């Protein structure tokens, strides 16, 4: 690839890339937290749906 085909990144394109990378990092952190929670709660009984609905006033 020659230098003529490479475009110099703009501030806007770099900002878009940083936003995209930040979102991916946040998604990965969320996944790590979810996996840790699943591991911590392995074998524990869940909360019945009726109780959750009542606590969240979903009825």
Describe the fold and architecture.
- Helices cover 63% and strands 0% of the residues.
- The protein has 59 residues and is an all-alpha fold.
- The protein starts with 10 loop residues before the first helix and ends with a helix.
- The model has no long low-confidence stretch (mean pLDDT 92).
What is the CA-based Rg, rounded? 22 Å
Uncertain runs are: none
Please work out how many helical segments DSSP would assign.
2
Main beta sheet strand tally, sense and closure: none
Number of β-strand runs: 0
**Averaged pLDDT:** 92
Fraction in beta strands: under 5%
Structural class: mainly alpha
The number of domains: 1
Distance between the amino and carboxyl termini? 62 Å
Instruction: Specify the helix fraction band.
Output: 55-70%
Basic shape: elongated
**Secondary-structure element pattern, one letter each:** HH
């Amino acid at each position: 690839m020659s230098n003529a085909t490479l475009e110099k990144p703009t501030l806007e394109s770099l900002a878009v890339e940083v936003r995209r990378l930040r979102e991916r990092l946040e998604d990965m952190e969320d996944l790590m937290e979810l996996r840790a929670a699943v591991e911590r709660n392995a074998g524990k009984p869940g909360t019945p749906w009726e109780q959750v609905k009542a606590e969240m006033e979903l009825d």
